[in-house]
Amino acid sequence: MKNIYIIGVGLIGGSIAKDIRHLNPDLIIYGIDSNNAHLDEALTLKIIDAKATFTDLKNADAVIIAIPVDATVSILPNILDLVNEDTLVMEAGSTKAAICKAVENHPKRRNFLATHPIAGTEFSGPKAALEGLFQGKTNIICEVEKTAFKLQERALAIFQIMGMRIRYMNPEAHDKHIAYVSHLSHISAFMLGKTVIEKAKNECDIFDMAGSGFASTVRLAKSSPAMWTPIFKQNKTNVLETLDAYIQNLTNFKNHLESDNYEKIHDEMANTNYIKHILNGIQ
Amino acid sequence: MKNIYIIGVGLIGGSIAKDIRHLNPDLIIYGIDSNNAHLDEALTLKIIDAKATFTDLKNADAVIIAIPVDATVSILPNILDLVNEDTLVMEAGSTKAAICKAVENHPKRRNFLATHPIAGTEFSGPKAALEGLFQGKTNIICEVEKTAFKLQERALAIFQIMGMRIRYMNPEAHDKHIAYVSHLSHISAFMLGKTVIEKAKNECDIFDMAGSGFASTVRLAKSSPAMWTPIFKQNKTNVLETLDAYIQNLTNFKNHLESDNYEKIHDEMANTNYIKHILNGIQ
User: Fold this and answer.
1) pLDDT by residue (tens digit) across B182-198?
2) Do B269 and A228 touch (CB under 8 A)?
């Protein structure tokens, strides 16, 4: 691998670029981004070595796409059209079914690998890129059997330098599960933030009283709407299922409180304390 | 101040004890706790210097109560009965109205100061006690005018050594505001944890996909049910109001998603991103 093209030099693309630089001292990392200011920033921060355009992709050994999932669905077929027979094309989107579907019949389907490196922060843009962001984190690979064997190997070399644990899953199972552990958490945080901000309009002291517990619970409400709107759109059915379950559990809790059933409220919390054992396994 | 009695040597009481040790080298910190194993642990960890019982409280210069809020309401009048005319009695509960009400006509009301040092972690017991936990955090003092002036001064010396910012508020305003920034966050996290655990019963891979975002949003679901059940009970009316608002916002979000109103979904998130500016002020 020599020429690597990162499409989207933000938090995820920029962090991947920082890690893969260690792959090979001769590596040249090119950046492509619809936001030219971000490209300049990535160049200044030495995240990329040079700016590039789509017509340069014919020279790529690997292309890594890290842009909103609706844009990925729309440009992924064109990117496969542009690359040569031996190029690995990967993307890092938080949904997998619509993206895999977009290229299922593409003549270069075997050049493509669908991945979801599960890591991030609530920040965005090239300045948010962090070396080591993916270390020890999980990377979900979908439909691995549809990717050419030698390109799978090229991808694994990249994930190894990033320090990721690999899990294989089909796109539908990915989207169903990730709705619970990631997409719902974001909506829960956004709506908590909204509820408190609405209240604070009339009660200006309210945020003086917010402590680290609130900060932690609402943290994901800082995330980028440009990135998250298309995720919720593409994963609509699964996200609606999680929202139904969450709203039902909140309503039940409210009903227990209304009817002074404190034994039940205690038990609901005690049973959920089990989450301790799960979180111990998450970095 | 020489003899300080901590009633409840867990996360909060233990952390206060660790800080106030720096007040004075001659200080003797006594511990009282209904859980004798916790008392032994606090002694071994040198959080307290000696165990004590309620009959010893006549010797106290200051008494600090850090136990579940229902237990505080029930024993606070007895504690005021037992202390001498010159003793400061404080408590650190997450609700204020019921506690202030419980002693409003007590002959020793002027010995009492109602406080809420807003800090904590999701852990509990003496082992969870941390020196410096309260540094830079907010402490809400209620009904300060009802406390004897020289005992106010004694309390402020303690808060100074803990490094706390003081805010004065009436108990009703405290309970109303804290329901939004603290109590609702806990329910939001507990019900998120419950929703995902219920799903995981049938889908065992789900937690393999959980990242740091989920861990942060659900963190408060590790909190102690014994502490939180009485908080929700005492602050029932305000907590129900926050739950209504939160469930309504989640339902509206769900409706926007069902009707494919992605512009609205984007705007809801963009408006809530304002939380960034608020969280910057929270340590």
Assistant:
1) 999 999 999 999 999 99
2) yes
From CA A41, how far away is CA A14, in angstroms rounded?
11
Tokens of B157: 């010396």
**Are B206 and A180 in contact (CB < 8 Å)?**
yes
Residue of B120, B194, B195 with shortest CB distance to A213? B120
CA distance A213 to A224: 22
Taking the C-alpha atoms of residue A36 and residue A9, their distance in angstroms, rounded to an integer, is 10
Top-tier CATH class for B3-169 = alpha beta
Q: Which of B193, B190, B108 is nearest to B147 (CA)?
A: B108
The domains of chain A are located at 3-169, 174-279
Beta bridge partners of A89: A63, A112
ipTM confidence score: 0.92
DSSP string, A165-213: EEEEE-HHHHHHHHIIIIIHHHHHHHHHHHHHHHHHTT-TTGGGG--HH
Which CATH number does B174-279 carry? 1.10.3660.10
CB B99 within 8 A of CB B69: yes
Check: CB of residue A220 under 8 Å from CB of residue B247. Answer: no
Q: In chain B, which among 4-33 make CB contacts under 8 A with chain A?
A: none
**Spatial CA neighbour of A251 closest among A195, B95, B256, A259:** A259
- Model confidence band, residue B282 (pLDDT cutoffs 50, 70, 90): low
Which residue of A181, A222, A229, A248 is the best one to mutate when testing the B interface, meaning the one whose CB has the most B CBs within 10 A? A181
Q: Kindly report the nearest CA distance between residue A90 and chain B, in angstroms.
A: 19
